[in-house]
Specification:
Length: 102
C-alpha cells in the first residue's frame, strides 16, 4: 500500500512545518503539486489535528535524519527537536502557493 502525504509528514515530524522553505521542499519531495489534492490536504489537516503535540522523536524517519538532508529537524544543543507542534499556518500558506502554480 502506498504511503500518503499525511503518513509521510507524520513520520518526518513537526520540523517539516518550521518554515515555508522546509515545508515547500518537503512537499515537493513527497510528490509535488500533482499530489496536492483536496483529499490529501484533508488527510494532512486531520493528521495534524490528531497529533498537534506529543509526537515522539522515535517516530521520525531515522534514515533521513542525516547532514545535508532536507529532513533534518531544527536541533537544540541537547539534540532534541525545537519544534513541539505543527505549524498549520505555514502548511496552509505553502499549499496555497503550490495551488497557484497549478
Amino acid at each position: 500500500m502506498e504511503s500518503s502525504i499525511a503518513d509521510s509528514l507524520r513520520e518526518i515530524g513537526y520540523g517539516c512545518t518550521s518554515d515555508k522553505d522546509k515545508c515547500r521542499q518537503t512537499l515537493t519531495q513527497l510528490g509535488g503539486v500533482r499530489e496536492v489534492t483536496a483529499p490529501a490536504i484533508a488527510q494532512v489537516l486531520g493528521m495534524m489535528a490528531r497529533t498537534i503535540t506529543g509526537l515522539q522523536d522515535d517516530m521520525h524517519l531515522q534514515t533521513l535524519n542525516m547532514p545535508n538532508s532536507l529532513w533534518v529537524a531544527e536541533q537544540r544543543p541537547d539534540g532534541l527537536s525545537t519544534q513541539q507542534a505543527w505549524n498549520v499556518d505555514i502548511f496552509v500558506q505553502v499549499i496555497q502557493e503550490l495551488v497557484r502554480l497549478m
